[in-house]
Amino acid sequence: IESEMDPVPKSVDPSYQGSGKLDGKAAIITGGDSGIGKAVAIYFAKEGADVAISYLNEDQDAETTKKLVEEEGRKCLLIRGDVGNEAHCQQIVQQVIDEFGKIDILVNNAGEQHPKKSLLEITDEQLQKTFRTNVFSMFYLTKAVLPHLKQGSSIINTASITAYKGSPGLIDYSATKGAIVSFTRSLSESLADKGIRVNGVAPGPIWTPLIPSTFSAEHVGTFGSTQPMKRPGQPHELAPAYVYLASNDSSYVSGQMLHVNGGEVLNG
Ligand code: NAD
């Protein structure tokens, strides 16, 4: 089955109306320039939050996202650098505190994956880099943010369906996503009595720039077709899950992964 995909990922459903669920909040979103993070940044702004976007590459994406956030009447701070570097993560937090005066929401979403390989083909360099970007960044940034979080704050980590199903060509990547699930569970238990919630989202196949940049044309052509809904998701179909987990609507929810994957039923 061929997926019918618009080449441009859809960040916004035009019928979505914000209702002030994040009014006055300040959020950090890593990888907020592109794909899932971009949609989350726009939806958070639609719900009333100011957003700081951490991103890696100097291209038009960050500026475009900033413009869309500002069109919602919210502030947007762009911070470029590698979140796999602890000093940079501390710098992100300092800049956000200087600019917004507080942090209420942290979305650890930046991630990388590499073209499919067998275990024996995964170099040490790739292994180190994937873990640095996907896992170490989450430790570094969460550690730096934690002293600033007050009761009612929310941390949301982007995991993946691959943490649950495995993925033969993405062994390093899926292992990082398993680590994100475990981190989410462990940290949530240690922060629950402080009123700080830690949850995650486990996306299935989502049509973002990550996909054509790392998968073969053949895989891209059928991307998402094996899901029960027989299609990939669009970034705007993920963003409301993050709004829910960031807002007071999920005040009694912590340590959980929200699966947004086109209907695949998974354990855990
Ligand atoms: P994307 O490539 O559009 O966005 C990822 C962004 O992360 C990049 O634009 C970049 O700015 C940022 N980033 C990457 N490395 C970084 C670094 N070292 N420092 C700072 N920023 C960095 O991809 P996406 O699909 O939107 O991915 C977002 C998250 O969703 C990732 O964690 C990814 O693993 C996860 N995910 C994606 C899918 C999917 O099918 N697209 C499925 C499951 C999980």
UniProtKB/TrEMBL annotation:
Q: Which UniProt keywords apply?
A: Oxidoreductase
Identify the InterPro entries for this entry: NAD(P)-bd_dom_sf, Sc_DH/Rdtase_CS, SDR_fam
Instruction: Write the protein's name.
Output: NAD(P)-dependent oxidoreductase
Respond yes or no to whether keyword Manganese is given for this record: no
**Mind telling me which Pfam families this protein's record contains?**
adh_short_C2 (PF13561)
Q: Does the keyword Oxidoreductase apply?
A: yes
Any stretches that span the bilayer, and where are they? Answer: none
The UniProt entry's sequence similarity note says: Belongs to the short-chain dehydrogenases/reductases (SDR) family.
Q: From which organism does this entry originate?
A: Siminovitchia fordii
Q: Where is the signal peptide?
A: none
